[in-house]
Amino acid sequence: EKQGFKHYMLKEIYEQPGVVRTCLEDYLRADWDGDSPFSPVQLPLDPSLLENLQHIQIVACGTSWHAGLVGKYLLEQVAQIPTSVQYASEFRYAPPPLLPNTLTIGVTQSGETADTLAALEMELKRRQGLEGALQPRLLGITNRPESSLGHLVPHIIDTRAGIEIGVAATKTFVAQLMAFYLLTLELAWQRQSCDRPRLAELVTGLRQLPAQMEQILESQERYIEALSHDFAETQDFIFLGRGINFPIALEGALKLKEISYIHAEGYPAGEMKHGPIALLDAKVPVVTIAMPGSVFEKVLSNAQEARARDARLIGVTPLDEAEAQHTFDNLLPVPEVDELLSPILTVMPLQLLAYHIAARRGLDVDQPRNLAKSVTVE
Ligand code: F6R
C-alpha cells in the first residue's frame, strides 16, 4: 500500500507531480496556444456560474483555507475580481452582508468538514431567490466529489488528487491550488482581464510544473532529511513569505505544528518588525520563501533583518550559495519560475521539512495526536 515509502505522507508528497499532470491533462486544452480563439481551460462548469461576477467569497478550514488565500491572490490579481476568504467556522456565525453577483466557493479535501458544509448550506438558503431565477452560485473544490459536499453543491471541480490517507494534507492542497489556477485562467479569459501573451506565459508555466516538482523531489529529499537532524531540540520555528507566498508560509508552519508538535508561526515578512521580531534569537530558525518577482528584494531585506538578530535563516529560493551567502545559512533550492506559479513549488520543501523533522522524532506522521482526517463535528 505504501509502495516502499515509510509513511503515506511521504508517498503522497511524491504523488504531487502526477496529480498536477492529471489536472493539466484533464482541464487544460492541449491544442491551445496564444492565438487560439477559445479558452485554454476546459472545466466542466455551467457557463452561467461564472457570468458577470462582481465578487467571490471562499470558505474553508485549515490547509484548504490556505489554498483559498492563494486563490484570492490569483482571482484578484489576474482575473480582477474582488475576493474574500473566510474561515468557515467564523463565516457561519457572522456572515457578511449579501452582495449580488457573488460566487461562493467551498474548498475541502474530505468534502465532510462540518463547518464548511454548514457555511455553504447557510449561504444556499440565504441566497435562494436573491438573484431572481438564477440559482445561488455555489462551487465546491474537492478531490472527493462523492462526498457530502458533492451532494450539497451543484457545481464541483474534482481536483483529481484522489483519496489522501496521511492526515496532513499535501497532494490535496497542491491539487486545490491547481483548481484555483484553472478557474482564474478561465475567468481571465472570459473577462479579458489579462492580455494574451501573459495568459500564454502562465499556460506554458503550468505545463512545466510537474517536471520542476520532480526536480525538487530528486534534488532535495536527502538534504532536507540530513538538515532535519539539526532541529532535534528546536522548540519554535518562524515561516516568512510575502504576496502569493504568504499563504505558503502559513501552510509550512501548519504542517510542522501538526505532525512534529513544534510551535511554528507563519507571518507576512513585512509584519516581522511590528512585533514578532522580538521572538528571534539563535534558537529560532526562520524559514523564508524568497522567490524572484514583485516582493523579492523586500523579502530578502526582511530575512537579513531577522539574521541580524542571530536567527538561523533557511531560504526557499532559486538563489545559489554565492548569491545567498549574506542572507541565508541553509538553502532549500527551488527552480526559478513565474512568481504567480511559485506556490506549487515552494510548498514542497516545507512539506518535506515538516515530514523529516517529525519522522526523525519518531512520531506517528500519518496519524498525529488529536487530529482526524475528516473533521465532521463542529
Ligand atoms: C492540515 C489539515 C487540516 C485540514 C482541515 C480542513 O493538514 O489536514 O487543517 O486542512 O481540517 O479539512 P478539509 O479540507 O477536509 O475541509
TrEMBL record:
This protein's record includes keyword Cytoplasm: yes
Residues annotated as catalytic: 373
Residue ranges occupied by any SIS domain in the UniProt entry: 45-193, 227-368
First and last residues shown, out of full length: 249 to 626 of 626
Role this protein plays: Catalyzes the first step in hexosamine metabolism, converting fructose-6P into glucosamine-6P using glutamine as a nitrogen source.
Keyword entries, A-Z: Aminotransferase, Cytoplasm, Glutamine amidotransferase, Repeat, Transferase
A biological-process GO annotation: carbohydrate metabolic process
Region forming the signal peptide: none
Natural source organism: Thermosynechococcus sichuanensis E542
First-tier enzyme category under EC: transferase
UniProt-recorded name of the protein: Glutamine--fructose-6-phosphate aminotransferase [isomerizing]
Compartment(s) where it occurs, according to its Swiss-Prot or TrEMBL record: Cytoplasm
Principal localisation: cytoplasm
Assigned EC number: 2.6.1.16
GO MF annotations in UniProt: carbohydrate derivative binding; glutamine-fructose-6-phosphate transaminase (isomerizing) activity
One Gene Ontology cellular component annotation held by this UniProt entry: cytosol
Gene assigned in the entry: glmS
Reactions mediated catalytically: D-fructose 6-phosphate + L-glutamine = D-glucosamine 6-phosphate + L-glutamate
Record note on quaternary structure: Homodimer.
